[in-house]
Specification:
Elements (H helix, E strand, L loop, with lengths): L4 H17 L3 E2 H10 L6 H13 L3 E5 L5 E5 L1 H10 L5 H23 E7 L5 E7 L9 E7 L2 H26 L6
Antiparallel strand pairs: 1-3, 2-3, 4-5, 5-6
Helix pairs in contact: 1-3, 1-4, 1-5, 2-3
C-alpha cells in the first residue's frame, strides 16, 4: 500500500493515538479526539484514514455491545508504528501523550460506564446501568432500578458515570467474598 507523505503521517498519528490510549475506541471517540477536541486531523480525513488502516490490517475492529464497533491497533499496526513513529513531529507526539494522560479516564467512563432510562407504563422509569468490558461481548455488570421520576433517572445516570466503579466494588465485595471465614 502506497501512502503520500501527508497520508502516511495521518495514519501514523491515528495509530499512535490508538496505541497510547491502550483500549479499543468507538469511531465517534476517535473522531472526537482527532477533530473536535484537537485539530490533529480533519473530520473526513480521520474517517478515511481509519478505514484505510482497517483495510491494511493495521487496525482491527471488535464488535461491542449493541452492535457498537470499537477499533484498536493490530500487531501489524504496532510494528509499523514502531518503525515509523519518528515521522510524527516530537511536539505533536508530546501533545498526544499529554492529552491521553489527561483524558483516558473520561473515554473509559464514556465507553464502559453506560446508563440509560426508559419510561414504564405505570409512569415510573426503569434505570439501566452497565459496566461494559471491551474483552467480552456482554456487560460485566448490569443493574436495573425502578425510579419514581424522569428527573431522578437523569440524575442517577449522571452519578453512574462517576461512581460505577465504586458501586461495582461494593457489590462484588459483598456478594463474592474470597476471604472466607
Amino acid at each position: 500500500m502506497e501512502f503520500s507523505q501527508d497520508s502516511m503521517v495521518s495514519k501514523l498519528i491515528l495509530l499512535f493515538i490508538l496505541e497510547k490510549m491502550e483500549m479499543p475506541l468507538t469511531e465517534q471517540s476517535i473522531v472526537d479526539i482527532c477533530t473536535s477536541q484537537n485539530d490533529w486531523l480533519n473530520y473526513m480525513e480521520c474517517k478515511d484514514v481509519l478505514y484505510q488502516l482497517v483495510e491494511a490490517n493495521f487496525v482491527y475492529s471488535l464488535d461491542g455491545q449493541a452492535g457498537e464497533e470499537r477499533f484498536t491497533v493490530s500487531y501489524e499496526g504496532q510494528s509499523c508504528l514502531d518503525h515509523f513513529y519518528q515521522k510524527i513531529e516530537p511536539k505533536l507526539r508530546e501533545q498526544i501523550i499529554d492529552y491521553i494522560k489527561n483524558n483516558r479516564l473520561h473515554f473509559k467512563k464514556s465507553q464502559e460506564y453506560v446508563a440509560d432510562y426508559f419510561k414504564n407504563s405505570d409512569g415510573t422509569y426503569l434505570l439501566v446501568l452497565k459496566i461494559r468490558s471491551h474483552t467480552v461481548n456482554y456487560p460485566m455488570f448490569e443493574i436495573k432500578i425502578a425510579t419514581p421520576s424522569r428527573q431522578t433517572a437523569i440524575e442517577a445516570c449522571k452519578k453512574w458515570r462517576e461512581n460505577a466503579h465504586l458501586v461495582y466494588e461494593q457489590v462484588y465485595e459483598n456478594l463474592i467474598n474470597f476471604n472466607a471465614d
